[in-house]
Design a protein that fits this description.
By secondary structure, this protein is α+β, with helices and mostly antiparallel strands. It has 26 helices and 19 strands. The termini are far apart.
């Protein structure tokens, strides 16, 4: 009897849902090819059966996700209150501001072309673009973003995704990603904690603080343009779970666990994690077209073998483990437990992070300078001149000041121009901790005030404060050494000599600058990084002479032509400590043990159990020779 009641209820619910669908103007219009052709929008036809199949979320109606009014029988009535996808436009009348999809004549959100970060990008209709003063469409945003700020809109998520996934939305809205929490802790360029950094200060609701530390005019409109640009990285539910970048019959495919391309921007013109990873650190996961130099740097071995971001960065309470979270730090042992444990127990390398040996190729920014220029279609005092793209021959290994673990870093010169007050030089490694502060939420989109804090042992990134120095044109320059931790691309390990042939660490950077808002043609340069017992030094600066555009002074984007090298730091031991004699003896023992393992592998090729033991010992050898020797004792 109980089963019969359940079946009847299910039939009744299905009948009710079917009746509702029949009466829904969403289905009446968009589910009819003839009706959409009659209305002049055949590209907006969707097969209801295919939509239901792709969504695969049970009896979910169109208005549950898209809002609007399904009872309205005119376009105006049906679409009332419905948030829609939009583009960020740049041009005479648009400074990275929202325009509707009518600018592309509602070209369907389906992947096109071969460039993965631009699969969903479209060119505007030429006549409409000319009439509206639009030069380019910079990015596509889904409908759960706020068209005024470009930020993720939690109030829309609560009304849509939150109907069925209430707990998930609540958890995400208070997560670090949902709140864009840590970036909002960077209030001023001149604050020692968390310090000046590559992405700049938090522009959002922070105009007064930023303009107050500049010696030149900085209008709110310029600040707001930067804020909109920054908010492209403020991910929404659809950014992670909607698979617009995959071709489908009804453009309604979703996935519970985000795939790497979702983490890399979903093909919407933004690059999300490729920004801080591939473009800034030069240590990305997907690389390829996302990296600079494009398609030149080797892929991460895990990416090549189908390992996803979620396999290492586990989600807890809808919050992902970031670079320095405990779960991410220890993720190597999930697949390499024997090797991980052996390395941890090593007398010589127990405090060396796996990435220190297994990351060799580093790319992306080799300089970045915040100074006068053009961005978001605006000529302004704070433009990010980041296009010094190139490669670094080897990461610099640095001992974490709090955790005592050696990690790979990419130190490179940075500065912000036109700073008003003097800032003193601080000759030490400064971790990017954030002391507890209250951040005011954006009430307009349903955000609540929250506290942001990041303790020293919770962050890997650091910097060195070089302080202020005078320029010829741009008042004072606040300089620092950006030091970002490398986490990818993981592959074949560096050899012993790369660390132990010298206590000094020497690497070379080469770069090409190609921001055509600053120069008429690309130009090249290079420098050498020396990490020694006496300090950190940037030497052998070489560059071609830039040919600037008419309104640009070379100091605006290349301040070192007038400041000279102000980034050298003395008094910090940046060398690799080891006993030369002990290393020479250990290397001899290592080679002897390697030869023995080679012989044992040949001798036991027909004994599967012994052969596997020898092969494992060979893998453990570089991580812990003592452990490897113990494993083969008696063979």
């Amino acid at each position: 009897m109980k089963k019969l009641i359940i079946v009847c209820l299910m039939m009744l619910f299905s009948f009710g849902a079917a009746q509702a669908a029949e009466k829904s103007s969403c289905i009446t219009c968009h589910g009819s090819k003839a009706e959409m052709e009659k209305l002049g929008y055949p590209q907006l036809y969707l097969d209801p059966a295919e939509v239901e199949k792709e969504v695969n979320m049970g009896e979910v109606a169109c208005e549950d996700c898209h809002l609007g009014n399904p009872a309205g029988m005119t376009a105006e009535e049906a679409h009332k209150g419905m948030p829609r996808p939009f583009y960020a436009a740049v041009g005479k009348n648009h400074k990275y501001q929202a325009v509707g999809r009518d600018i592309t004549n509602y070209d369907p959100i389906q992947p096109q072309g071969k460039v993965p970060f631009a699969y969903l990008m479209r060119k505007p209709d030429p006549e409409k673009a000319k009439a509206q003063g639009i030069a380019v469409l910079a990015q596509l945003f889904y409908h759960d973003h706020d068209p005024e700020t470009m930020a993720y809109d939690p109030s829309i998520a609560e009304k849509t995704c939150g109907k069925c996934h209430e707990n998930e939305v609540k958890e995400y809205n208070v997560s670090s990603m949902g709140q864009n929490r840590y970036q909002r802790g960077y209030k001023k360029f001149s604050d020692l904690k968390p310090g000046p950094q590559n992405c700049g200060a938090w522009f959002g609701d922070n105009h007064e603080a930023i303009s107050g530390e500049l010696a030149v005019e900085y209008p709110k409109a310029h600040n707001d343009g930067s804020a909109r640009n920054c908010n492209q990285c403020h991910a929404s539910c659809n950014d992670c779970h909607y698979q617009g970048y995959k071709a489908s019959n009804a453009r309604h495919t979703f996935k519970k666990d985000p795939e790497p391309l979702s983490c890399y921007g979903n093909g919407k013109g933004t690059i999300c994690h490729a920004g801080p990873m591939d473009r800034r650190r030069g240590a990305g996961y997907m690389r390829g077209a996302f990296a600079f130099p494009v398609n030149e740097l080797p892929d991460d071995v895990h990416m090549a073998n189908g390992v996803t971001c979620n396999d290492c960065h586990k989600m807890e309470n809808h919050s992902y483990g970031h670079l320095s979270s405990q779960s991410a730090r220890e993720s190597c042992k999930n697949c390499h437990e024997d090797i991980y444990q052996a390395a941890l127990e090593s007398e010589d390398h127990g405090n060396v992070d796996c990435t220190s040996c297994h990351i060799q190729s580093v790319g992306a920014y080799q300089f970045t300078f915040w100074g006068p220029g053009k961005q978001e279609g605006q000529v302004k005092a704070l433009t990010k001149h980041k296009e010094y793209y190139g490669t670094r021959s080897m990461p610099t290994l640095v001992k974490h000041p709090e955790r005592g673990v050696w990690i790979p870093m990419k130190p490179y010169p940075m500065a912000v121009l036109n700073i008003k007050e003097d800032v003193k030089k601080v000759n030490k490694l400064i971790l990017r901790e954030i002391e507890p502060m209250t951040v005011k939420g954006n009430a307009k989109i349903g955000e609540k005030d929250f506290t942001v804090e990041r303790k020293p042992d919770e962050v890997n990134d650091m910097y060195i404060m070089n302080g202020t120095s005078k320029l010829k044109k741009n008042s004072k320059m606040l300089a620092w050494i950006q030091m970002d931790k490398m986490s990818h691309s993981i592959g074949k390990a560096r050899n012993c000599e790369s660390c132990h042939s010298s206590h000094d660490q020497i690497a070379t950077s080469w770069w090409t600058y190609d921001n055509m808002n600053d120069v008429k043609k690309t130009f090249n340069g290079s420098y050498t990084i020396k990490a020694t017992k006496k300090g950190l030094f940037f030497t052998d600066w070489k560059n071609e002479t830039p040919v600037t555009v008419d309104e640009r002074d070379v100091e605006d984007f290349m301040p070192f032509v007038n400041s000279g090298n102000v980034w050298d730091v003395k008094g910090i031991d940046m060398s690799i400590p080891f006993d030369d004699k002990k290393y020479a003896d250990a290397l001899g023992d290592y080679n002897l043990l390697y030869a023995k393992l080679h012989r044992l592998e040949l001798a036991n090729k027909n004994d599967k159990e012994k052969l596997e033991k020898v092969k494992l010992a060979r893998k453990i050898l570089p991580h812990n020779p003592k452990k490897a020797a113990e494993m083969i004792s008696g063979l």
